[in-house]
C-alpha cells in the first residue's frame, strides 16, 4: 500500500466502495484518534481508508518528505486499504466552496458507507474547520448536475473520533474495545517519529505513555484492557444487542 499524495479525486482509478473513510486534518490525527478501531475493522475484513486533508507541515522536527514516509509506515502498520492526501493548506484549512467540493469529490469516488470526522470541539482551527467541512461535503457529495467527478453519493453516517487539543472531560457516545489492536495503534503512532519522539522529553510519562494511559482509561470504563471513544450527533442504530459488551 502506498500513500497517494495530492492525487485529484477525478484521477483516482475505479475502486470498490470503502466501508469507512476516516478524514483527518493532518497525517497522524486518524492514528491518534482511532488507530485501534481502524486496525480492528481491517482485521475483520472491512475496507478502511484515510484521507488526510493537509500535509501537516511545517512542524518543528518534520518536513514534507519525512512526514510522507512516516505516513507510509503508519499506513502499513494499520494495513490500510487506501490512503490519500487532499493537498489542502496546513494551518490555513478553511471550509470554503472550493474545499467542500474537493472533499465531496473524494466521497463520490471512494463511496464510503461511513465517514469519520474529528470531534467538533477543539482548540486547533484546522480541526474545527475540518469537521465543518466534512459535514458539508457529506451533503454536497449527493448533488446531481455538478461537474464533480463520480456519481452522486451520500455516506450513510458521519461519526466523530477524538483527537483534540483541549483538556475536555469528554462524554463519548460509545467506546470500542481495541485491546487486541493496541500494538498496531502504537506502531502507527510511533511511525511519526518527527512528531512524537524527536525532541520530546524522554522522561516518563512520555507522550506515548500518556496515550497508553488514555487508552487504558477508556478500556477500564468498558472492563477491557484498552478502548477508543467516539461521538455521534444522530442516535446510534444497532442491528441487535449482540455486539454490546
Ligand atoms: Zn491535527
Automatic annotation (TrEMBL):
Signal peptide: none annotated. Gene3D superfamilies: LmbE-like. Coiled coil: none annotated. NCBIfam families: thiol_BshB1. PANTHER family: N-ACETYL-ALPHA-D-GLUCOSAMINYL L-MALATE DEACETYLASE 1, N-ACETYLGLUCOSAMINYL-PHOSPHATIDYLINOSITOL DE-N-ACETYLASE-RELATED. This is Bacillithiol biosynthesis deacetylase BshB1. It comes from Novipirellula rosea. The gene is bshB1.
